[in-house]
Structure formats: C-alpha cells, structure tokens
Specification:
Helix content is 35%, strand content 19%. By secondary structure, the protein is an alpha+beta fold. The protein has a 3-stranded antiparallel beta sheet with strand order 4-3-5.
C-alpha cells in the first residue's frame, strides 16, 4: 500500500511492518499505540522503525492512518472521564483532610 508520511511516499505492507518490528522491544508509552502481534507499540516508535525517519518529522496521526489501512489495531488516547463536582461543603471537608462523602 502506498502512503505518505512526512511528505515522503512509502510502499508499506502488513508483512513488511511485521518483519520490521520483529525483535523490537516496545517502549513504555501512554499515548496512541499500535498492536503488532501481541505487543502494544507506541505509534511514534513504529513510525520511526518503519520509515527510518526522526520522530519529529511525522505526526502520530499519519502513522495511525497508515497502520489502520494496513489492518493493524490502533488505540488512541482515551477520552477523559467526567469530573465529579464537589459541593462547597464537600470541598471544604476535603481541604481539611476529612473523607469526602458522595
């Protein structure tokens, strides 16, 4: 499949990506990830290995789009959970160290 990452065209195949990532240890990461085999790789690490470019040269969205089109499972950042608002009394109690009641 032909895709453009950092303004450069690449011919990527699923088997080629699997071969490139073979033996590469996933870096710890909390952002977007790509599942290759049974491992979760950070998107920027996959982009760097596959394109041999510096991570600053491409965006995570470009790599996510390419990996999705190749059929890999991609995980994006989870949306933030709703914040529970405290009443003024609960907030004052929390500031004093008392347990907050729901």
């Amino acid at each position: 499949m032909r895709c453009v990452i950092a303004r450069f065209p690449f011919e990527l195949t699923k088997s080629g990506v699997l071969e490139s990532m073979k033996g590469i240890k996933p870096e710890p990461g909390t952002g977007e990830s790509v599942i290759i085999g049974r491992r979760h790789y950070p998107v920027k690490q996959v982009g760097q290995v596959v394109t041999r470019q510096d991570r600053r040269d491409f965006s995570a969205a470009e790599v996510l789009r390419a990996m999705t089109q190749l059929g890999f499972t991609c995980r994006t950042l989870a949306t933030a959970a709703p914040v529970r608002r405290l009443s003024p009394l609960q907030q004052a109690s929390a500031m004093l160290g008392a347990p907050v009641s729901v």
